[in-house]
Structure formats: structure tokens, C-alpha cells
Amino acid sequence: MIYNLYKHNSTIKGVIEIAGSKSESNRLLMLRKYSSDFKITNLSKSDDTKTLIDALINPNKIIDVNHAGTAMRFLASYYASKPNSEVTLTGSDRMKDRPIGILVNALRDLGANIEYGEKEGYPPIKIIGKNLISNEVSIPANISSQYISSLMMLGVKINNGIKLSLEGNITSKPYILMTKKLIEKIGCNVIINNNQIEVLSKSKSLSKIVEVESDWSSASYFYSIVALSKDAEITLKTFKRNSIQGDSIISKIYQKLGVETIYKEDYIIISKNKIFNLPDRLQLDLSDSPDLAQTIAVTCLGLGIECELSGLHTLKIKETDRIEALKKEFIKLGVDNIQTSDNKIYFKGKHKLNNNIKISTYQDHRMALSFAALAVIIDISIESPNIVSKSFPEYWENLKSIGFKIN
After folding, report:
1. Residues 92/66, Cβ–Cβ less than 8 Å
2. Out of 47, 48, 288, 291, which one is annotated catalytic?
3. pTM here?
4. What Å distances lie between residue 105 and 115, 138, 197, 314, CA to CA?
5. Per-residue pLDDT for 106 more than 80?
6. In Å, how far are 42, 237, 261, 360 from 264, measured between CA atoms?
7. Mean pLDDT of the chain
8. Is position 291 annotated as part of the catalytic site?
9. DSSP letters for 216-247
């Protein structure tokens, strides 16, 4: 399937209600399973969250998480600590190429019984659940924060909690802090002291209802659309100024690109600053928010701004190698001077973009979500558009609601 998006010449205006954060939702689902029942409102509608719910409610001997990396990592800890259970966690071909050895080694250090089904260090993994006796473990810090979050949440269940020693520089720290705040919300204590994390047993009553804030990662695509437009004002519902989501930094980043954010009680209004002078260059270290890289790169491309993004090493093991995927699609659009490494992407500004280019999405939802914003300035086609259901199933309908033409 291909969606054709046509250049949007008119004013962009509308109200959009984005569902709950996938990151918050999936952590709260695990914490509810580890502790005691509480109600979760504004839950994510993403495929990843649905996959996790199904795996927790109706587990089979073989659990296929497809592309859902959070489900793979969070479920590994959960089933390792569930006595008398025996499951095999598997996924798509791409998932089988995404490493899990660091988490498996950490769980084994805690006493878990886990074996690899095919390739050492990669899914599928066979887990025989048991009570985990040990509660101290070391793990590299410069890896996916999902490994660390998975172990932190496990500490809610393990007797005497868990003590994690993180070795090296921490990547995606805001996601670790999100996990900390959500664990505290359900009644446990978390102490973070430099590279040491300790999750303590429950010390106070838990919240009976926990509301999930809407997803800032999903909001980022509308920031890109506003930045690329000549005139736009979009209201996004259920967002807070003091968010626990690291990707909320998008509002400050896009202020540099001419997008103003007005915070109301439970929503935000984003609009184009028409008298703003764009910078010639944008240089950012995205170590704390690498999921924003594709969105920001596409925006800078559309605005003709020189762009250098670093701190991207985790993008190599996402749904696709996102750095390489960006490079390939930028070249198709007319960029002839893009430079990449395992950690960085750089390109000069002021490109004349090719029209009617077909964007490959590489089974990666963020490729489709981010490149669609270019339809503000050129006609563009998106292959496999339904891939957005992984995180944002309402995306195309939302675009139509603010005037985009899609067929």
C-alpha cells in the first residue's frame, strides 16, 4: 500500500487529541502486574501496547511480540521472575536481529533461567520462571534505557528490591527518570545516585488511578508540520508543562525553528512565529531523546537548514538502522552531501527537494510519521503507511482533519 500526500498550500489549523504515551502506558502495565491492581486512564492505542496487554492477559507458551521492542525487554524480566511459568519470547525477523544479551546476562546474574532459541545474544529466548534470589547487578549504561527500566520495574517484585550499577555514560536518561517517577507513583521508593539505582520495597499506599499523559513523541510530528508551514495553529490535547516524558524537550527545540508553544491547563497550542528568523544551522546532541532524530532531520531538510545531530548510537538497533534509512531517503529527495556514522548524521542546508518521491519506511513507524510532514511543501508518497499503527494509529486521520489531502 502507498499513500500519496499532496502539497498543503492553505493555513493549517485544527484540534487534535493524541492518545496516551506508549512509554508511560507500557511501564504502568508492567507495574500493575508486578504490584497490585490500579486503574490506568488514557492508555496508549499503539500496537506495541496492545501486544503487551495480550501477552500479560493471555500468555501462550510462545509469545510473538512482532516489532515491539519494549514488550520484548519488559516481558523478559517479568517472565523470568514468574515461578512455574515457561514461555518463549520471539518476534519479527528484525526483532531477531536486535540484541538482548545484555539484559539476559543481567537477569541470569539475578538467578534467572533463560536460554537462547537460535542465535546467542538475540531473540527468541526461552524463559523458565522462578523466584529470583539475588538483587544486585551491573549493566552497561550506554545501551537502550529499556534494559535498565525493565530491571528497575523488576525491583518492585523482588524481595529487598534491586540495586543496579550502571557502567559508563548513561544514554536516554529521561526514560530512566520516567520509570523512577512511575514506580514512585505506585508506592515504592527509587534512589538514583550518580550511576547507582536502588528500587526499594513499597513504603506508602499506591495511587488508585493513574492517568497517562498524551505522547510527546507523537506531538513532535505536528511541531514539524507547523515549522514547515507558512501559517499554522494546532491545539494538542492532554499535555502538561511539567511532563515526565523526555521527548517534551521538543517544544524547546522547535522554538529555535519558529514554533511557539502556549501551555494551557491540560492542552497546548502550537503556532508558527511569522516574524521569526530561522538559524542557518542546527546542532544537537540527542543522547537523551534519540527518537526525535528523524523528525528534526526532516524538518531541517524541509527548511533548508544545515543540520548536525549526534548521540544517535541506539538508532542502529531500532526497527531499522534509522541513520542509514534517513541517508537513503534523503539522497532520493536530492541531498548529495549527507554524512553519517554510527552516532551522527550531518547534511548541509538549502537543497532543492525532488517532488513526488516515494519514501520507503523500512518497517519503521517513525520513518512514515516523520517524512509525511514534507507534504507541507512538496507532493510525496509514503510506502506501507499502516506501519504507523505501531505507535500512532490515528495519524493519517489526524492529518486529514487539519486539511491534508491523502489518497
Report:
1. yes
2. 291
3. 0.89
4. 11, 10, 18, 19
5. yes
6. 18, 10, 10, 37
7. 93
8. yes
9. HHHHHHHHHHHHHSSSEEEEEES--SS-S-GG
